[in-house]
Structure formats: C-alpha cells, structure tokens
Design goal:
Chain lengths: 486, 96
C-alpha cells in the first residue's frame, strides 16, 4: 500500500481520507518509513519530529471520526523549509549560527496550515539563510536531486523540492527571494508557486531580503498548489507588508478556460539557454497556441540589469537583516571574546558560512558611506524600470511564458564560482523585483532524464488566473505522473 | 560607478562586525571584485527622473491599535539566549 501512497496528490489522498479507506496515521507512518528508506541518499531533511507528526495525525483522525474534519488538507503531512518557524521545533536556516535555536512561536503560515488540519512535519534543508541556488551552501551538507543523486536539487529551497519529488512529503513550503521556490521546483519536476509580494504573511520567516521574500507552496499538481495557497494566503496584522487582498477559491478557479493572451519575452530565450530546455518550453508555447491562446512576442528591455539590481538590493537588505545575529540574545556566541565588538565579530565569523559572509560584505559595501547613491539608490531606480517593463507588457498580454531555469540540474560541486551560480537565477529574479506571482510547472525532460520547468509569470494578485493556465497545461500532459526511482 | 570598484575589505568587514581570516579576505576580494565588475553595467542605465522602488507594492501608514497584548513568557523568550542569569542575558563587561 505504501508505495501507492507517497506519490499521490493532496486531492487524491483527501478523497481516501474522506472515504475513511485511509487514516492520517497510516499515511504519516508510510511517509516516515519512506523517509527512513530514501533520505540517507536524498538528504532533504535537516531534522524531523516523527512522534509529534504521529500525534498530529492521530488528532486529525480523531477529528474526522467525530465528523469535524477541516477540509482537504486535514491529515496531510506537509514539510517546511527550515526557515519557517514551528513552535517547539528547531529553526536552523541551515546555519551553524542557529544550530541550537528552537522556535518560541509559529509562523503565520504554520498557524494557517495547522488550522487547516495539516500534519506539519520535517525541517527541510536549504542554502544557508536561503542564500544560494543549489542547496550546497548548507551547514548540514547538500541535498541531492532525486532524479540523479549526483546532481543538485536547485535552491535555495532544495530540500522542499527534493523531499516532495522523492515521495517523502505530500506537499511543502519554501521561500522565494530570487527564484528559490521556482528553480528547485523546475529542477526536481514538481510545481512551485511564488505568490505576489504581500499575499502570504512573512511573519515567522527567517528574513533574507524583506522587500523580495515570499513564502509559497511546492506541490505535485497545480490543483494541490491551489489548495496549499488557499490555506496560507491572507492578510496578517503581524506583517506590516501584508496586503488586504481578496482570497478567492483557487481550486474552483482552476476550471477557468479563456483564450489567454500570452507573452513571450524575447530576452528570456537568448544565449545561455540549454537547448533541451528551450525546446521543451517551445513545445509548451505551441500547446497554448493550439488551445486558442494568442501568443505574442514582448520585450522586457531591462532584463539584462535584473541580476545586478537583485544582487545589490538583496545583499543590502540581507546585511541589515542579519545584523541581528550578534551572539547576544540568540544564536551562536563565540567563547573568550574580549569585549562586545569582539563578541559580535567573532560570533558572526564562527556562525556564518562563506556565501552568507560574502553577501553581508557586499551588502554592507553597497550601503556604505560614499557608495549608497551609486549602488543601492541606483539599483532601486532600475528596479522601478524593471517593474515598469512587466506592467507595460501586461497592457498587451495576460501572462508571460518563459523557461524557469536556463539549465537543468547541474552536478554537485560543478559551479564553485559565485557569479556562475548567480546566473542560474536570471529568469526568476525579475519577478521578485517586480513583486509578481509566478509558478513553475513540469514541461518535459532532457534526453538524460532531468526535469524541465515552464515558468508562468502573472499579474499582481491574479494567482487564480495563473493556476488555471498551468492547470490547463498539466491536464493535457503527464509529466507530473512520472517519478524518480530511488 | 564609472571608475573601477575599490572594495576596502578590511573597512567593510569592520562595518559589518565580521571577523575575516586572511584566506577569506583574499578569496572574497577576488570573488566580490568579479561581482562588482558585473554590477558596473548598471551605470549605463539612464535613471534620470526615475523614482526609486523600495517595495513593489507600497503599503504606507500601517497602523495598529495601541493596546497591550500578551507577549512571550520570560522563560520562553530567554530560551535561546547563549548565556543567562536571573531572567537576564549575560554579556561581557561593557563598563569597567
């Protein structure tokens, strides 16, 4: 039975739970066993509290027996990236800095998932403080791609994507600052959604770059992503950037079929795009055309400046956010410091890994006296132009179709140069700078059997349209039914 | 931004309160030099009259009612402190 369970969708499992042919305890036990069998190779989990998960599952079963089940997520095990707080559970951000930190409170998304009855289970690996594109910058060591264990799962939410692809969780949450949900989703062959900035509360998320960070779901199907988004979206007074947006029934919205006008930004199909990825995306574009959608080439002329703009703004915000890790109130404290300044400098030197240090240095530099106007302020102005590019395109089209990542999963250790790794994000970072929603949906495989992702970029707070577009594609293809053999 | 970037790593590391080893200094100098060189191309963009964007969807004047709410109990709030005594966080001596 177990083998049939762990690759099922939320929607399928919810029907089994509802029919009482399956209990949450059975499902949760099957996933714990699956994790024991494969995670030694995949290494998606930083830690897990199995007893706590089984207690949540038993509570779900009791609710259902009493006729008080809370909906499709009740009893479904969901894994969380190790940057999202869960009361009483470790919160490491995959950093030595937070090696012994235990969350004193729940993130708002955690509260929302628990309210929906989900079994919140597992702390999933990521790049340290969500900084990276391969999950190799983790103090726990890298996660492997379930489709090829010698390759990266993408990042920074690589553990979330890999755990889902490997059948260790039914759905997961990640965070996306420059592509950290969509790129690993593409590289692991699952659906990943980055919501509009402000749709999902950031309260209880370890802050990386506050004007770019968003929490979003990983799921096997677009329908599951719609269910997850519906559970976590909504205004939160604890996050002052949270938006008072109307939350529609995303699942009901999947049935929308319209002759959408879809834009193809020519700048996203240039040099550096892997031919197999390009070919798969072209086929997806042809599919939409065959469905009566109008396909139109558009231009986002400032695309070439996205990477630089991103690395100035994201590192500047990170250097400010990570100033809180000073060895005083929580986190790693160096021993034998002479004075306070020494305590700060040594604790940070010992607690942070190389990529985090690089970004703190870069961010401090671009904000420092004499450089602020030339770097940070200029980047914020270019950000305005980048955002305007998207808004101009949306005068002519409803959404944009692009590759999610320029390349499929690369080998562990292959990209040691920081700049080469930063280039992995060229198709995803513009979305964060503009605050837009975007999702990655599987659209094929390379000749070598590695998953490829199609990115759909939507208009602010129009996730419902975006999900319907992706659902249309998914319904006519079977990529989401293929699974790695482990 | 037209001139070559001059990253004084020593100075910036001090500002960031981040002690770096000599090996890190050498490695970061080269790596961040490459990144800064890449970033130089932003100088080509004409930003005359363009307003800076701090947040994609500016939300201004978010007010909360000024009412006291329960916070974390002191034991919970201090649970992650590296050193504590008598419900206080212990730090190195600041004033002689």
């Amino acid at each position: 039975m177990a083998a049939d369970l762990f690759f099922k969708s939320i929607a399928e499992l919810a029907a089994l739970l509802e029919a009482k042919t399956l209990s949450s305890t059975e499902l949760t036990s099957a996933l714990i066993a699956r994790k024991s069998a494969v995670d030694g190779r995949v290494k998606a989990f930083n830690s897990s509290d199995d007893a706590d998960a089984l207690a949540q599952a038993a509570a779900s079963d009791a609710r259902r027996a009493a006729g008080q089940a809370r909906g499709p997520l009740d009893g479904i095990p969901v894994g969380l990236k190790d940057v999202i707080s869960v009361t009483g559970q470790p919160l490491t951000a995959s950093s030595k800095m937070l090696a012994n930190f235990v969350s004193p409170y729940d993130a708002t998304v955690t509260v929302n998932l628990k309210r929906a009855g989900a079994v919140v289970w597992g702390r999933l690996n990521c790049d340290e403080f969500a900084m990276g594109s391969s999950t190799e910058n983790s103090a726990f060591g890298p996660t492997a791609n379930p489709w090829d264990l010698t390759r990266v799962p993408g990042g920074s939410s690589g553990g979330s994507a890999a755990a889902l692809a490997a059948g260790e969780v039914i759905a997961a949450l990640g965070s996306d600052t420059g592509g950290s949900i969509r790129q690993p989703a593409a590289l692991c062959g699952v659906v990943g959604l980055k919501p509009t900035y402000g749709l999902v509360s950031r309260y209880g998320l370890v802050a990386f770059a506050s004007s770019l960070d968003q929490i979003g779901p990983f799921a096997r199907t677009v329908e599951d992503a719609a269910l997850m988004l519906g559970a976590i979206a909504g205004h939160d007074p604890l996050d002052s950037t949270s938006f008072k947006a109307e939350i529609p029934d995303y699942r009901a919205g999947l049935k929308q079929r319209r002759p959408w006008r879809l834009g193809i930004p020519k700048e996203y199909f240039g040099a550096g795009l892997d031919p197999a990825v390009g070919a798969a995306v072209e086929k997806a574009i042809a599919f939409y055309k065959s469905q009566g959608c109008e396909i139109k080439e558009v231009s986002l002329p400032h695309t070439q400046y996205c990477l630089d703009t991103y690395y100035i703004i994201a590192t500047a915000e990170a250097s400010s956010n990570l100033a809180r890790f000073d060895g005083i109130r929580y986190g790693h404290r160096a021993k034998g410091a002479k004075d306070m300044a020494d305590l700060y400098s040594q604790s940070r030197a010992e607690g942070f890994g190389a990529e985090v240090k690089r970004r703190i240095i870069l961010g401090t530099y671009v904000l420092s006296s004499g450089y602020y106007d030339a770097y940070y302020l200029r980047a914020q102005k270019v950000r305005t132009l980048i955002r305007q590019d998207f808004l101009n395109a949306y005068r002519e089209v409803d959404a944009l179709l692009t590759p999610t990542s320029p390349m499929p999963a690369f080998k562990l250790g292959e990209k040691s140069d920081p700049l080469a790794l930063y280039l992995c994000d060229i198709y995803t970072i513009g979305v964060n700078l503009a605050g837009l929603p975007a999702l990655s949906v599987p659209c094929g495989f390379t000749p070598g059997g590695l998953p490829i992702g199609l990115q759909l970029i939507g208009q602010p707070f129009r996730e419902s349209d975006l999900l319907a577009m992706a659902h249309t594609y998914e319904q006519a293809h079977d990529w989401h039914l293929k699974h790695p053999s482990l | 931004m037209s001139s070559a970037p001059d990253l004084d790593l020593e100075h910036v590391a001090k500002l960031a309160r981040l002690a770096l080893t000599p090996a890190e200094k050498e490695q970061f100098s080269q790596q961040l030099g490459d990144v800064l060189q890449h970033i130089e191309q932003l100088a080509k963009v004409d930003v005359t009259g363009i307003e800076p964007t701090a947040h994609a969807f500016p939300v201004v004047n978010v007010w909360a009612e000024d009412v006291a709410r329960p916070g974390l109990p002191v034991e919970v709030a201090l649970r992650n402190a590296p050193a504590q005594r008598d419900h206080l966080i212990v730090v190195p001596k600041v004033v002689e």
